[in-house]
Design goal:
The protein is of the alpha/beta class and about 475 residues long. The chain contains 18 helices and eleven strands. Strand 5 and strand 6 form a beta hairpin.
């Protein structure tokens, strides 16, 4: 792992100093074996306690959301072993609370074993700034930066929760969430889609009234993730960006749950998600020999078209369920969702019938932390019941063939997606024009394909052409010294 890099230079000087200290301190704790993930988690707990305390002081003077004895002043006055013991008890007690407290402190544990280093983090770093009054961009950028660093620390496995920010921005730019709409991510990770949707609405609607602002802060966004440690990072990320309740007045925008377990009953205007990669849902069982093994878990739900243990096919069906009539969705799916037979064919047929599946973006490899993933973004709108299929034509944009990206040397940037955004023609899809990378396929053509495969390729892959032009093996052998 490299050093924690400095936070972006657009942060104003006064606030960037405290942020810089936080970055630098993660190097100190890393020497104690703490990962970026552990560090961000401990920061999350302590920042929340500090900001909750700040809310009780002038000019805010709000009642404390933290039970007395577990608040920031109680922590700030202790030292040595007494501090370590009290901090442990604080995390335990707050994890049993409702609302945002419960989301952030659920199953929380102290990972900083050295009381002196814990004291320094509390007194020298977090206590030195008034976090509530810091610009949301400053807090948010610093936190996002740490989350990204955590994702790059692939040994910790956190990368699976991180979708490239450029891709998120492009998806939100073409789906265009609006004021008053509800936006859901049923596999929210650290909240990238939710934050980008919030930022898009603020940026493109300069005259939001008070009701619209309140809706955007407290009601518009909904995230669910199955991993509680990830949900807490998401909750804190939203809070630092000024989203969600700072008290018990409304439900938190995120919760920990298995999205595929059941139909939650809620319906949304927009669903944007990148469900976890990994093909099968499974459960750990003990077999007759007494050894533990994984058994495929087939999800059976009345609202699903097909019962399968393929997690991605289940997420596609779940997203359809979550949408209001005329709701809009964008889902990142691996290639197998486009061509797999059996349940896959059933899901694709039904999707083309009951939804307007209008756009498919074939993504390049090398943009995800999970290596070698071949993925796509499927865009569709849910429609009312109809005897005739809603999908008239599917437009496919190929950003994969002959495109080469890597996470470090040549990462995917928003500029690489600008042609796709322009070709998509949000709001005027009827005006689309075919190009070398953007092709139209009619419904009749799709439905006649083997297994209704949507794995549509028309560009020649230059790397394969190079293979065609290789000399015969007996000519190569002498050259390679074989």
């Amino acid at each position: 792992m490299g050093d924690c890099r400095s936070v972006s230079s657009n942060v104003s000087n006064g606030s960037s100093q405290i942020v810089q200290k936080l970055w630098n301190y993660c190097n100190v704790l890393r020497d104690d074996g703490l990962s970026y993930g552990d560090y961000v988690e401990q920061l999350t707990y302590l920042l929340f306690l500090k900001m909750a305390h700040e809310q009780t002081l002038p000019p805010w003077k709000k009642p404390s959301v933290i039970p007395k004895g577990y608040d920031w002043p109680a922590l700030d006055t202790k030292d040595g072993d007494e501090l370590e013991i009290h901090y442990r008890h604080t995390l335990e007690a707050l994890g049993k609370q409702a609302g945002m407290l419960g989301v952030i402190f659920r199953k929380a544990q102290n990972k900083i074993q050295d009381p002196a280093k814990l004291k320094r983090l509390i007194s020298d770093l977090i206590d030195q700034a008034e976090w509530t009054s810091l610009d949301a961009d400053v807090k948010g950028d610093a936190y996002e930066g740490l989350l990204e660093k955590n994702a790059q620390d692939v040994k910790g496995g956190a990368g699976q929760y991180f979708t490239p920010r450029a891709l998120i921005r492009a998806i939100v730019d073409v789906v265009r969430p609006r004021p008053g709409e509800t936006i859901c991510d049923p596999a929210c990770g650290t909240g990238g889609f939710l934050l980008a949707s919030h930022d898009y609405i603020v940026k493109h609607n300069s005259t939001l009234d008070n009701d619209q602002k309140k809706h955007l802060k407290l009601k518009a966004l909904r995230g669910v993730d199955i991993v509680s440690s990830v949900t807490r990072l998401c909750a804190m990320n939203l809070l630092l960006h000024g989203i969600g309740p700072s008290d018990k007045s409304t439900e938190p925008p995120v919760s920990t749950d298995d999205s595929l377990r059941a139909d939650p009953g809620d319906r949304f205007d927009v669903v944007l998600t990148n469900p976890p990669f990994g093909k099968k849902s499974s459960v750990l069982v003990v077999n007759e020999e007494g050894e533990s093994e994984r058994e495929a878990l087939t999800i059976v739900r009345d609202d699903f078209w097909a019962s399968t243990s393929n997690k991605q096919l289940n997420f596609v069906q779940h997203v359809k369920t979550l949408l209001k009539i005329n709701g809009r969705a964008a889902v990142v799916v691996p290639d197998n969702v486009l061509f797999e037979g059996g349940a896959g064919e059933t899901v694709r047929r039904k999707l083309l019938q009951e939804c307007d599946v209008h756009t498919l973006l074939r993504l390049p490899t090398g943009i995800f932390y999970a290596q070698g993933v071949k993925a796509n973004v499927l865009f569709f709108d849910r429609k009312p019941a109809s005897e005739t299929p809603w999908t008239r034509e599917l437009w496919v944009y190929d950003l994969r063939t002959n495109m080469h990206f890597t996470l470090k040397q040549n990462p995917l940037r928003l500029e690489h997606l600008q042609d796709f955004i322009a070709a998509f023609k949000p709001g005027e899809r009827g005006e689309r024009i075919e190009s070398e990378r953007f092709k139209r396929f009619g419904y009749d053509e799709l439905i006649q394909r083997d297994k209704v495969s949507l794995d549509l390729i028309w560009l020649r892959d230059e790397s394969l052409e190079d293979m065609d032009n290789l000399p015969t093996p007996n000519v190569i052998a002498p050259l390679t010294g074989v």
